[in-house]
């Protein structure tokens, strides 16, 4: 059962109650000027109340055709008022023959389409009611009914739309929770079998060497990919878990260490940080060789996230980065420092000849995604390939 169900049942109750009220008014005034026509209108209202109650209870029947028919039937009953009441219309008060029953389609349109559609329905009924009053003898033109119709259509439509959105969010949360439970169940079984076998193949392949070393390297890559798949947890809408993006870089040569809990950042921030890490790893492979070992560490502090990339290479000679900038090779300046600067963060590069290099990236953890998107769009594209050349 959807959250709309209670709304449609409430409208059905309103139809029945307002129908009874219209019947009481008809009997109280002895059928007005045309009793036969008046009771025919009440009969039509009763039949449509029963039919619409059933139709709106079936989800497949709810749609614009039913809403239009509902409005047409209501308008027909409302526009019959001058013919039923005749010369007594102005003397008997301002209430039309259907009385408050005319609000039923307004409520139905509001529940179906929100406050805008509810306001449209209220305007249609209000115009018809105004026409009835203008064409009645000495009938006072009152706007109270129109105001109430608009208030009902807008308020009910707004509440119904909020309820639908809440239901959708709850459904997504339930699906994410179910997916996470299934992932954890699979992880328990895989951890004791597949991951251990892949780790054993990787270790033994490196020990044996030769072709077995290549098999070990491939096994290590598959182990890292599988661990990433099992470790990924859903992040809130519009956000991303930085751990999942960093784990993609894991391989036999690259070790990625992250906290056990998600590092949730705005999606654009997480993507840019991961891209900066990728650029740093590209530099490691370019200057230290494809088999060079590297380590990626991520941690979340108070209001900021820090990711460091370390290697065991020969390090960067003093003045080498400045020389690269002067020669127009802006890999570090654009792919790493430029990206992080656009995020409002900072980059620290620590390197000594013969002792490797550490690139430390620190970004705020609560920066609004919109400002980051503007900064990223404003940053100059590095080149046709989409990747900056290595320093």
Automatic annotation (TrEMBL):
Gene3D superfamilies per the UniProt record, alphabetical: Histidine kinase-like ATPase, C-terminal domain
Organism superkingdom: Bacteria
Listed GO biological process terms: phosphorelay signal transduction system
UniProt region (Disordered), positions on chain: 355-391
Keywords: Kinase, Membrane, Transferase, Transmembrane, Transmembrane helix, Two-component regulatory system
Domain Histidine kinase/HSP90-like ATPase span(s) in chain numbering: 273-366
Transmembrane segments annotated in the record for this chain: 7-27, 39-58, 65-83, 95-112, 140-163
Ranges of compositional bias, category Low complexity: 381-391
The keyword Cell membrane is assigned to this record: no
Residues spanning the signal sequence: none
A molecular-function term among this protein's GO annotations: kinase activity
Domain DUF5931: 1-168
UniProt-listed PANTHER family: NITRATE/NITRITE SENSOR PROTEIN NARX-RELATED (PTHR24421), OXYGEN SENSOR HISTIDINE KINASE NREB (PTHR24421:SF61)
NCBIfam families named in the record: HK_morpho_MacS
This protein's name: Signal transduction histidine kinase
Organism placement in taxonomy: Bacteria, Bacillati, Actinomycetota, Actinomycetes, Streptosporangiales
